[in-house]
Amino acid sequence: MPSERSYYDVLGVEPGADRQTIRKAYLRLSLQHHPDKNVDNVEEAKAKFIEIGHAYEVLSDPEARSAYDR
């Protein structure tokens, strides 16, 4: 069974990345994997889009990120 990827891996950033880097990665990936832009594979794109959003939600909040990093 494969291990789950970290939120840093999902966004393709290093654990020490600043908020601006995390935001840029989120914007780039959310546009790339948006379900409306991937009409050939909507279900996979939707799952990836949700995963990207959740990773950004945690990593963009300093308190949530601190708890996640523990």
UniProtKB/TrEMBL annotation:
Every J domain range: 6-70
InterPro entries registered for this protein in UniProt: DjlA_DnaK_co-chaperone, DnaJ_domain, DnaJ_domain_CS, J_dom_sf
Spans traversing the lipid bilayer: none
Superkingdom of the source species: Eukaryota
SUPFAM superfamilies on file: Chaperone J-domain (SSF46565)
Record's protein name: J domain-containing protein
